[in-house]
Design brief:
This protein is of the alpha+beta class and 287 residues long. The protein folds into two domains: 1-115, Thiol Ester Dehydrase, Chain A (Roll), CATH 3.10.129.10; 132-287, Roll (Thiol Ester Dehydrase, Chain A), CATH 3.10.129.10. The protein is 18% helix and 38% strand. The chain is built from six helices and twelve strands. The protein has helices at residues 4-12, 40-52, 138-141, 148-155, 194-205, 211-216, and strands at 15-20, 24-28, 60-68, 78-87, 91-100, 103-113, 159-164, 179-186, 227-237, 247-257, 260-269, 274-285. Strands 1-2-4-5-6-3-9-12-11-10-8-7 form a twelve-stranded antiparallel β-sheet. A hairpin with a 4-residue loop joins strand 11 and strand 12 (274-285). Helix 2 (40-52) runs antiparallel to helix 5 (194-205). The longest helix has 13 residues, at 40-52. It is globular and about 55 Å long. The model has no long low-confidence stretch (mean pLDDT 95).
């Protein structure tokens, strides 16, 4: 679609097939990607939407853990089967399996909770981050590059993403450190649906979480022969926040070994409220 956010919302609008076994069955399509594979954040968000469809809206997701099993193909629909593992007085647990051609491409388990009160604290947001309006857009950084990936990163994403200190699309500027931050928000307003905002935040959490690993080793995305693939993804949704407003995604990599790198992240709204925590391990191979 010419409107990237409309493409995201269309992908998240799953179809209830009416089919029932012991599980609930939904189907969904995919957004175009220059490399021809399904974006991991998309299938994570769709899996969460499928699970949420089996619950009341007010019982919202607070954690999810997924494993990427196979690359997904853009030219085939994805089937989502939801197992209603447990429903308690306050919590529910769901397992979602995403399939193409009868084979699982993602397996996710998620937990949901009714609104509740209790202890409340958080790690503060860093106070030395430049304002997002002072940073260049991806479209500006990549405007002189005539390549499908550059056009996709610069203009076709449903999120405006601005790096601190600088993106690593083409080069790694400055010291080779294992941390970075990005500001992100959707390119246009979202519907007033809190669970849709949560799913979109899950979607966006997979965009740049890998970069603290390869930044540490001075590897931009254009490094010849560089191969990066997400192995798993865990996310804890602490507090609600809108994704059509600026949010700060602080990322760091504590470890890389054995062809794998671990990244961790925290997502804050502009007021400094901690919305979510993220962890992902990737496969990374360098010639």
């Amino acid at each position: 679609m010419s409107d990237p956010l409309a493409g995201l919302l269309s992908a998240l609008d799953l179809t209830d097939t009416g089919a029932r076994t012991s599980e609930d069955i939904f189907t969904g399509g995919s957004q175009w990607q220059p490399h021809g594979r399904v974006f991991g954040g998309q299938v994570l968000a769709q899996s969460l939407i499928a699970a949420q469809r089996t619950l009341p809206d007010e019982r919202a997701a607070h954690s999810m853990h997924g494993y990427f099993l196979r690359p997904g193909s853009l030219d085939r629909p994805i089937t989502f089967s939801v197992d209603r593992i447990h429903d308690g007085r306050s919590f529910s647990t769901r397992r979602t399996q995403a399939y193409q051609d009868g084979k699982p491409i993602l397996s996710m388990i998620a937990s949901f909770q009714d609104p509740d009160v209790g202890l409340d604290h958080q790690v503060d947001m860093p106070d030395d981050i430049p304002d997002p309006d002072s940073l260049p857009t991806a479209a500006h950084v990549l405007k002189d590059i005539d390549h499908p990936a550059a056009r996709a990163w610069g203009s076709d994403r449903p999120f405006d993403i601005r790096h601190v200190p600088a993106p690593i699309y083409l080069t790694v500027e400055g010291h080779h450190v294992a941390h970075q931050a990005v500001w992100l928000k959707t390119v246009s307003p979202m519907p007033d649906d809190e669970n849709l905002h949560r799913a979109a935040l899950v979607y966006a959490s997979d965009y740049t979480i890998q970069e603290s690993v390869i930044r540490r080793h001075g590897l931009p995305w254009v490094t010849p022969g560089l191969k990066v693939a997400s192995l798993d993804h865990a996310m804890w949704l602490h507090r609600f926040g809108r994704v059509d407003e600026w949010n700060l995604y602080v990322q760091e990599s504590p470890n890389a070994v054995g062809g794998r790198g671990l990244s961790q992240g925290r997502i804050y709204n502009r007021a400094g409220v901690l919305l979510a925590s993220v962890a992902q391990e990737i496969m990374v191979r360098v010639p």
